[in-house]
Amino acid sequence: MRNGAPDAILLDFGGVLVDIVHRPGALREIALEVHALLRREHANSLDAGRVERDVRAGWDAYDRWKSAEGRRARPREMTHREFWEELVGADWPAPARATVADHATELCKRLDVATKDRPAKADSLEMLRALRGRGLRAGIVSNALCGAGSRELVRLYGFEPYLGAQVYSDEAGVRKPNPEIFEGAARLLGVELSRCWYVGDTIDRDVLGGRRAGIAKVLLMPSSHTGRGNDAVAEPDAVIQRPSDVLTLLSSPTA
């Protein structure tokens, strides 16, 4: 690391590069789509109310599972098929379970996209451009039920040319705070984690994960998710409010 400055900046996606605005009514929307899919595939013996109830129950169970799994030293990510076969459709007739299993990835992408709006933060693109101008590499490390939805937004917002790596937990098979997900991003960027900074918005996944991975400096950008989690204890090196604050810290004599 040159004069204390990093060789690469790793960033969370939701809460750091984009805001997260949850969409009420999204689970009902998805449930109606699933019900229609089952009818098209001639696999439907369930009414729409039952499908909605199980979609909601599965979504809630996944949220609880994430917190519990995060207590492990090396948490895994749930597969798309596992989500639909086990958390949503565990008690459905075999044809209905098989149908959602066959369409599990596209259904998870719909859930990822439909349940929240993710507008880009005002200075995210400016920050990524400035990192490129300083000769620093950048990459995303993000927990996601389906990272494909995030990849589409990365392209839409113009972030993609400035990112040398995008690592999402469903694609990697592991989720933060597992250090392996950070290690994967570092390999793609061709850098050592000890020469990286990481910016996240949670203590139990981001700050703790960065500490486990041996990242040089871990920055916390508070969001609506910051207070949630499994009560893990870890301290960030600094708290920032917006993406461009990374540039301010890089310009500091103690960087």
Nutshell version of this structure?
By secondary structure, the chain is an alpha/beta fold. It has helices at residues 26-40, 48-69, 80-88, 94-102, 104-114, 124-133, 147-156, 169-172, 179-189, 203-213, 245-250; strands at residues 8-11, 21-22, 116-117, 137-142, 165-168, 196-200, 217-220, 238-239. It folds into 2 domains: 8-20 and 119-250, Rossmann fold (3-Layer(aba) Sandwich), CATH 3.40.50; 22-116, no CATH class.
Explain what the structure shows.
There is one protein chain. The chain is α/β, with parallel strands linked by helices. It folds into two domains: 145 residues, 3-Layer(aba) Sandwich (Rossmann fold); 95 residues, no CATH class. It has eleven helices and eight strands. The strands form two sheets. The protein has a six-stranded parallel beta sheet, with helices on both faces. The chain has a two-stranded antiparallel ribbon with strand order 2-3. Strand 4, helix 7 and strand 5 form a beta-alpha-beta unit. Helix 5 crosses helix 7 and helix 9 crosses helix 10. The longest helix is centred in the first third of the chain and has 22 residues. The protein starts with 7 loop residues before the first strand and ends in a 5-residue tail after the last helix.
